[in-house]
Amino acid sequence: MTTARVDGIFRRVDAYEYAWCLRLNRGCQQRRFVRDLFATVSKLGDGAFWYVLIFLLPAIYGETAVMPSVRMAVVGSVGVLLYKYLKSRLVRERPYISLAGIVPGTPALDRYSFPSGHTLHAVSFTILAISSFPELTWLLAPFATLVAASRVVLGLHYPTDVAAGAIIGATLALVSMAVFPV
Fold first, then answer.
1. What is the SS3 assignment for 89?
2. Taking the C-alpha atoms of 158, 14, 95 and 28 in order, what is their torsion angle to the nearest 10 degrees?
């Protein structure tokens, strides 16, 4: 697909998603505690939370957690390469750049928005971790949901960026589980 065609598709989708983006971002603009909460969650979703989890699993669960942690690290690395490639090719501007009234609640890590790398990693790591340690679901599922929501609330992503990140993250996790069962 040509860049012009992709750009045209994104413009139509952006217009459709504008009301959602504005409504969700308004809470970030009007309530400091909302902005601070989602900015903190987003910052943890930059990687710190997931890196700590990868290293803590073997410390908590012993040898049984080594391979799940290795798989998480490999999927995380593949995820970074994939979302950076897609962003460089699809070049969708972030909502706060393209849409009037959207204010970023925190600085973006890079220029383009599609797909959401934060969501990709939150979903893939959550699926991988709870497939081996289901007792962590109570912590990881809500955190991953907050990470995904934070990206739209903070004006950094469109809902479709987050949905695409979630689909890609889930696919990476499920493929890795099928190819490399633990």
1. helix
2. -60
**Do 105 and 154 meet the contact criterion of CB atoms below 8 Å apart?**
yes
Q: Which amino acid is at 85?
A: Y
- C-alpha–C-alpha distance, residues 120 and 51, integer Å: 15
Q: Please, is 163 exposed, middle or buried when counting C-beta atoms within 10 Å of its C-beta (0-12, 13-18, 19+)?
A: middle
Each residue's pLDDT tens digit, 104-145 = 888 888 889 999 999 999 999 999 999 999 999 999 999 999
Interatomic CA distance for residues 26 and 121, integer angstroms? 26
Q: What is residue 93's three-state secondary structure?
A: strand
Name the nearest CA neighbour of 14 among 95, 127, 96: 95
Average pLDDT, the chain: 90
